[in-house]
Amino acid sequence: MNRTPPSVGWHLHPQLAEDTHPIAHFTLCDLQLMDDANHPWLILVPRVEHAVEWIDLNEAQQVELTREISRASRVLQAVFRPDKLNVAALGNMVPQLHVHVIARFREDIAWPRPVWGMATAQPYSPEELVRRIERLRAALA
């Protein structure tokens, strides 16, 4: 994974740092795992200072983000075989640009509604977190 250094002054938003675990560094984004065992849920965060909206990225960064969303989606598809993938960049609670990629199943706790606000997040146990991260990193390799 060819990692581009973050923009000067870039840092992961404190809420994302609290709610996620690092998986990998892509060319543009940090790939994080949401700490919610209810859903296989990845978050891509472009390392671009002050990026709030998609349009805050230049054209090359927008293209790269699209590639990285596709890569994260393919990993979730390969590892979990979901019925559906949800991809969203909302940013209503955390202003830093970030993209959610969530594997959804017809039998999941929120189906067919969005995952937000449907159930209390269930943090991974330490053992399950290690297994999940290892499995995702192996699929990325």
Mind explaining what this structure looks like?
By secondary structure, this protein is an alpha+beta fold. The chain has a single domain (14-140), classed as 2-Layer Sandwich (HIT family, subunit A). The chain has 3 helices and 5 strands. It has helices at residues 14-19, 59-80, 126-140, and strands at residues 20-25, 29-34, 41-46, 84-88, 99-104. The protein has a 5-stranded antiparallel β-sheet. A hairpin with a 6-residue loop joins β2 and β3. α2 (59-80) packs across α3 (126-140). The protein is globular and about 40 Å long. The mean pLDDT is 93.
Comma- or semicolon-separated keywords:
141 residues; 3 helices; five-stranded antiparallel beta sheet; alpha+beta; 21% strand; globular; 30% helix; HIT family, subunit A
The general outline is globular
Task: Look at the helices and sheets and give the structural class.
Answer: alpha+beta
In whole angstroms, the N-to-C terminal distance is 9 Å
* Number of β-strand runs: 5
Q: How much helix, percentage-wise, in residues? A: 25-40%
List low-pLDDT spans. none
Instruction: List the secondary-structure elements in sequence, H or E.
Output: HEEEHEEH
Provide the CATH architecture.
2-Layer Sandwich
Q: How are the strands of the biggest sheet laid out side by side?
A: 1-2-3-5-4
Output the CATH topology.
HIT family, subunit A
The average pLDDT score comes to: 93
State which percent range the strand residues make up.
15-25%
Total helical elements: 3
Instruction: Count up the domains.
Output: 1
Radius of gyration computed on alpha carbons: 14 Å
**CATH C-level:** Alpha Beta
So, the CATH homologous superfamily?
HIT-like
GO molecular function, one term: catalytic activity
Domain HIT: 42-111
InterPro entries: HIT-like (IPR011146), HIT-like_sf (IPR036265), HIT_Hint (IPR026026)
Pfam family, one: HIT
